[in-house]
Amino acid sequence: MIEELLKEKKNCKIEIDRLKIALDKLTNENQSLKGELNSKHREYKDDDDADDDDDDDDDDDGGDDDSSSKIVPTGRVDRGADRGVTRESAGVDWQRALDQISQMELKLKEQSDTSGVRLRAAEAELAAANRQISDLRKLLADTQVNGDAMIDQLLSAPPSGFSAAAINSTTNNNVDFEINDMQKDQLTFMLISYKTRTEGIIKRLQEDKKLLQQQLQQLRNNIEQQQRNNNDNIQQMLSNKQLVEDALLERDKCLIREAHLKSELTRLQNVLDTQSRDVTLVKKNEISTLTSQHELQIEKLNDKITDLEGEIANLKNSNCTLERERSRLQEELAAILKNMVDEEGARRTSSEDLVLKLGSLERVRDEMGMKMGMMADKMEASEKEHQRTVRGLEEELNQVKARLQRTLNDLDLVIIERTKLVDECKGLREERDRMKDEKESALRRLSRQILILQQTMKTKDIEYASKMAAMEDEHRKMMLELNSHVSTNQRISIKLKEETDSIIKRLESSVSKLKSELTVERKRKMELMKLLRDSRDKNIETESKMASFSRHVRELEFKMAENSPRHHHNHHQHLHHNHHPHHRYHDCQLFKDRLNVMSDVANEGMKRRNDDDDDVVANESKLYD
């Protein structure tokens, strides 16, 4: 039992060391978390200052862009919408992070409350254990007092009656033997009662020990549960820290994305401004070149038309001349035909010349007709070509007008989109200012919450340290009490061992005396048994003699009964003469009765002695056990 108490003491010391190590770990982790919170707070402040500077620069750049921008593309609206979506997602993530931080605060508060309740329960269990230890001390003191009283009682009544004077007669021997049996029974009863009481005390101590072990195991389980809860709290804090870091990282990513989008927006705005300026210049140049080209083509076409009109007029003049010449030739031919009659003779003479001249005139006429047909075909082809060119120029002019109208419409749309984008930029700036204000308010709220958490953590650390110090003091006191209790138990156990050794020696001496007396009693018993057997043999012999004598007497009585009455006198004399044998028969009968009584008494005495011997043997076996 003392070794088990020492083992429990060592286990308690190991458990206290382990709890101290766990407490140091918790304090270190709390300090590291505080340092990380402070560093994150400083990073927030630095990021806010940097964001304020970037926002001011962006505002200046935005004013220049508004002043310098003229045309903004339609894709700017989609980018603005994406930017709004990213801002909304960043706001949602930030709100989620704030909700998680509030949940963390609630969980930490609940865990601190539960840990306080468990600590109070552990203190109550420790007080109950101290009370049980005090009760066990009282019980041990009572047990010690009872053991001392029992030892004094055993020492005050030593079994010395077994060495009495020698036994002279059978009756005196029986009385002394009964007195010795009573003393021996009393001694065995006292030993058995002391043994049962000690066994009951040991059993009770074992039960109390089991109960204390169960309570100690329960305390260890509670401590392990508290440590697991602390580990869970640490894991929860780490996970919450990871969530906060993820939220901060997401915030940084959103800020970086916002800055990147701002730079990309300014770059795209500049590019679009330059491209719009280039496009307007190119379109203006193209329109001017197209108008100049169209004007040149129109002038050329007008020149061609005038040339063609001149050619047509020339052809008409030539045709008129040819017609006039033809009419003239016809008139000449008519005149010639008219003069042919008159000049028939002359014509006959010059008929060949006239025929030749007429053939030449007909050839000239045919050639002129062919030329007129060719000129008419050329005129028709030139008119058709002129009409085609005029239609093509009209179509090109219509296309140019349509393109010009489309460009004007595009310019109107671009101007409308520019106004929309300017309004959207104003709205985005307002939203940025609003989000900046929300961020500042959230940071102020988070800083206040962090300060509150730091204060609560400090108070909890102080309370936990004070409670741990109080528990360590109580445990130290309890260990000192247990050490003193163990030392007293050791002294008591040494004293009990010495007293039990002395009692065992005394009991061994008394047992040896009892054994010697038992051997003497056994020898006497053997002698008495031998005498009993002899007396029984003598009784059997006397019984056989008495039986033969009774048969002889009955025969004599039978013979006397057969005598006649006349021999009454003789019979009377005979009876008077045989008076002495009749008295002998009566004496034999009395002696027989006495022998029977003596044999019964002897049998009862032997039976009782056998029973006593069996009891003695059983008690000796118990004592040996």
Secondary-structure map:
Blueprint: H1 2-68, H2 75-156, H3 170-342, H4 344-349, H5 351-562, H6 568-577, H7 579-624
Helix pairs in contact: 1-3, 1-5, 2-3, 2-5, 3-5, 3-7, 5-7
Description:
The chain has 625 residues and is an all-alpha fold. It contains seven helices and no strands. It has helices spanning 2-68, 75-156, 170-342, 344-349, 351-562, 568-577, 579-624. The longest helix is centred in the last third of the chain and has 212 residues, at 351-562. Residues 119-146, 195-236, 291-318, 376-456, 497-524 form a coiled coil.
State the helical fraction: over 70%
Q: What gap, in angstroms, lies between the N and C termini?
A: 24 Å
Regions with little confidence, pLDDT below 50 for 5+ residues:
58-83, 157-179, 564-585, 620-625
Overall 3D form: rod-shaped
Radius of gyration over all CA atoms, rounded: 75 Å
GO biological process, one term: clustering of voltage-gated sodium channels
Biased composition (Acidic residues): 46-66
Region (Disordered): 25-88, 563-583, 603-625
Coiled coil: 119-146, 195-236, 291-318, 376-456, 497-524
